[in-house]
């Protein structure tokens, strides 16, 4: 068993937490679904709490029990509004509050209480959150859970950004998505440098070339047994379920195709490829991706502003197209977005009504008084 195997003394305290990082559209579902064949491993569809983070500062003093309980109720509601439900799990906000009320208070502690309770009900020793964007909150997570591990999944930025460009959850512009990619990988690199023993980095392309070798490596890192069943994704009920819910997931019920690693060459122009290679060249060199251009694209603030304007128009069109082409996908995503908007309206009104002295307490962690500046990371 690997050195990261859970200490036997942790049996009474529940499963060990793992966060997959750093950015969606990296092949994360393919890995999660296969690892879920292990009875010792549990990883449900992620909450993507990054979308909730701009609201956290609006709650006020989390040291107040009523305020913290309201946040718990709202996070439980977010879980209920998720596109993919967690099998055989229903949460009682009162029980969640009682479990976490005497620990450092934050939205992350609430999220992980849901995950760990669900994992315990499934008798898991490892619980993984696939909310990759939470890499930006890694320091707090380590503060909350001293044994947390991180699975850093790297994908060729050209392929990943090409995939992001087609996803309603991201921007509809190569430049903007490349900037997001760099920011995420900067956070992952910093985390790996400061906590090398906590982070396992794998390349998605290596998984495409040899699933078994990569899965065995991950299992060793987690301290769980590799199972041959992990190689037969067609037997995954969840893979079959989610592949029919969204075009973003339709390939998840099939074996990966190595040739797809180069599909970006048909989807991106050479100008777009050079933009990506210009911004990500450090990481392409770091992870062994060969460049196709001189990587000297000119990028100015004005170009970024214009890209944001184009992307917003394309995003509105994408939502309209989604409603026409896959109404189930649209309705499920819209329900979650509407729920977050409802919370925003309620919290904004409540914050405006609070006395001025209370508005200074944007977000309080009773252990460290950490203040979050997270609005720029939202992806509603």
From TrEMBL:
GO MF: N-acetylglucosamine 6-O-sulfotransferase activity
Q: Mind listing the UniProt keywords for this protein, alphabetically? A: Transferase
What biological process terms from GO does the record include? N-acetylglucosamine metabolic process; sulfur compound metabolic process
Q: Where is the signal peptide?
A: none
Q: Name one Pfam family in it.
A: Sulfotransfer_3
Q: Show the PANTHER family listed in the entry.
A: CARBOHYDRATE SULFOTRANSFERASE (PTHR10704), LD35051P-RELATED (PTHR10704:SF44)
Task: Spell out the protein name for this chain.
Answer: Sulfotransferase
To which species is this protein native? Candidatus Muproteobacteria bacterium RIFCSPHIGHO2_02_FULL_65_16
């Amino acid at each position: 068993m690997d050195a990261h195997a859970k200490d036997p003394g942790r049996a009474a305290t529940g499963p060990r937490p793992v966060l997959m990082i750093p950015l969606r559209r990296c092949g994360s579902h393919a890995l999660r679904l296969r690892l879920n064949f292990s009875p010792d491993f549990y990883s449900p569809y992620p909450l993507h709490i990054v979308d909730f983070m701009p609201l956290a500062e609006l709650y006020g003093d989390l040291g107040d029990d009523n305020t913290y309980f309201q946040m718990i109720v709202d996070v439980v509601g977010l879980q209920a509004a998720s596109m993919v439900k967690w099998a055989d799990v229903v949460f009682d906000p009162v029980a969640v509050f009682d479990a976490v009320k005497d620990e450092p208070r934050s939205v992350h502690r609430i999220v992980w209480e849901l995950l760990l309770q669900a994992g315990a009900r499934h008798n898991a020793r490892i619980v993984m959150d696939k909310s990759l964007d939470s890499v930006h909150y890694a320091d707090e997570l380590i503060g909350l859970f001293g044994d947390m591990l991180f699975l850093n999944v790297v994908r060729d930025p050209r392929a990943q950004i090409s995939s992001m460009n087609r996803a309603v959850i991201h921007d509809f512009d190569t430049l903007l998505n490349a900037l997001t990619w760099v920011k995420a990988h900067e956070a992952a690199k910093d985390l790996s440098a400061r906590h090398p023993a906590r982070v396992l980095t794998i390349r998605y392309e290596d998984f495409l070339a040899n699933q078994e070798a990569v899965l065995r490596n991950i299992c060793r890192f987690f301290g769980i047994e590799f199972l041959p069943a992990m190689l037969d994704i067609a037997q995954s009920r969840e893979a079959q379920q989610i592949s029919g819910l969204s075009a973003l997931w339709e390939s998840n019920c099939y074996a990966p195709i190595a040739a797809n690693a180069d599909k970006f060459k048909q989807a991106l122009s050479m100008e777009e490829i050079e933009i990506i290679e210009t911004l990500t060249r450090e990481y392409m060199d770091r992870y062994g991706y060969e460049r196709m251009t001189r990587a000297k694209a000119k990028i100015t603030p004005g170009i970024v502003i214009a890209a944001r304007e184009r992307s917003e128009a394309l995003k509105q069109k994408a939502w309209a197209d989604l409603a026409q082409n896959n109404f189930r996908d649209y309705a499920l995503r819209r329900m979650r977005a509407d729920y977050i908007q409802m919370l925003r309206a309620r919290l904004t009104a409540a914050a405006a009504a609070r006395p001025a002295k209370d508005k200074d307490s944007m977000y309080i962690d009773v252990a460290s008084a950490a203040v979050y500046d997270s609005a720029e990371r939202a992806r509603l």
